[in-house]
Design goal:
With about 160 residues, this protein is mostly helical. It has one domain: Lysozyme (Orthogonal Bundle), CATH 1.10.530.40. It is built from nine helices and three strands. A three-stranded antiparallel beta sheet has the order 1-2-3. α2 crosses α4, α4 runs antiparallel to α9 and α6 packs antiparallel against α7. The longest helix has 26 residues. It is elongated, with a radius of gyration of 17 Å. The N terminus is likely disordered.
Amino acid sequence: MSPSWLKSSISKQYKTAHELVKIREGLVLRWYLDSLGKPTAGYGHLQKKGEEKLTVTKALADAWFEGDIKDAEEAAMKQSLQLPFVTQDLLNVLVSVNYQLGTGWTNKFKNTWGLMRKGDFYGAADEAENSLWAKQTPVRVRDFQKALWRTQVLYDLYKDNKNA
């Protein structure tokens, strides 16, 4: 169960996370193969069984998006509760990361995730730079890094004020 202050904070910002994901995914109203060769359409929606012959419309893409983003939001919320400090900015970007890479991204990028859990957001940003992900989608990694850098600054201020 997440703290009530965090739930109310993120619920007011979902639109921002949604907008970020939609901008980065783009809208494609046809089936295409993504970078991993998987059939995809809409806002990065991976084709499911029975969808092969569907005509992709904006309304269908929007419906898929609303369903697909829920898992990313839930995962981001759970991940944020494992961090020593979180900002709304970082939470929004975590939604985007989970949407793009899947909710198991923390198992694929163990070093980055481990540094984040220790509160070393600068180190996590550096680690993300040296990944295949950064080579494939550098703009999205830069979104992630910027959120990590800003979080580190605020976390350091928080620690300094707490110890004063």
